Structure formats: structure tokens, C-alpha cells
């Protein structure tokens, strides 16, 4: 690591701490040439995920976009939308693939919501599955009821 003061290429690590829930490391360093101290951060490099939409278009995975959808479903419910999105994001990152279909992400969200809160699940499903009529909506509710008995 080059010193930001004198550009000397070598330094020693004085202190190391994990930050951001263990997702990065903060290191306090000292230049071996000028003895000035500076801080560096190491962050795990994540693979850029490409989302394949229903119409075949491809776009970069957008955590904010996913969070917005989950927040709508979990509004005024005792469910952490951020936790769900983080779990899904981690699963996608750990899947060893750089492309995923948007329908797969939607199914992942529905599965997480079904485990945590049935109302949030039904809210998300009503938008995600684009129910055409009341009958298809009731059919989804009856299936959910069956699974819980």
C-alpha cells in the first residue's frame, strides 16, 4: 500500500478492525519511510450481477429497486425489508453465477415473505403474479391456507 504522503510503497499495519458487520476491514498503517500514519479499508469485491427481465432485456442488479418493492409489501408489518433484501443479495452473490432471471428473484422474495409474514407475502404476490381477477387471487389465498394447516 503506497503512502498517501510520500508515495513510499511499503507500510506496516498497526491495527486491524472489522467494520460494516464484518463486510470490510479497517487497517491503521504507518509508512516505513516518513512514519506518517494513515487508514485503509478493504472491502470484499462483489461480482456484478446481471438481471434478465421477463422481456429478455438485461440490466445490472439494483438493490434499491428490490428494496423498494419489498418495502411496499412489508409496510406497517413486523418484517425487516432490509434483512430480506440482504439475504437475497447474499444468495445471489454466492450462487457462483453472474446472471439471474428477474422471475427467480421474485420467487426468492415470495419465499422469504411466506416464511415471515403471510400478509406481506400476499401483498407482494398480488403485484408480482399480476392476478387478473378475484378468483386467481382467492386461489393463491386458499393455497397459502392449505400449506399452513
Care to describe what's here?
- The strands form two sheets. A three-stranded antiparallel β-sheet has the order 1-2-3, with no helix packed on it. Strands 5-4-6 form a three-stranded mixed β-sheet.
- The protein has helices at residues 63-74, 81-93, 102-116, 118-128, 134-148, and strands at 11-19, 24-31, 37-43, 50-52, 58-60, 99-101.
- By secondary structure, the protein is α+β, with helices and mostly antiparallel strands.
- Helix 1 (63-74) runs antiparallel to helix 2 and helix 3 (102-116) runs antiparallel to helix 4.
- Helix content is 44%, strand content 22%.
Stretches where pLDDT falls below 50 for ≥5 residues?
A: none
As laid out across the biggest beta sheet, the strand order is 1-2-3
E-strand count: 6
Order of helices and strands: EEEEEHHEHHH
Determine the strand fraction and express it as a percent band. 15-25%
Shape: elongated
Using only C-alpha atoms, the radius of gyration works out to 22 Å
DSSP summary: helix tally: 5
Report the structural category.
alpha+beta
Major beta-sheet overview: 3 strands, antiparallel
Helix fraction bin: 40-55%
**If you average the pLDDT, what whole number results?**
89
For the record, give the distance between the C-alpha atoms at the N and C termini, rounded to a whole number: 60 Å
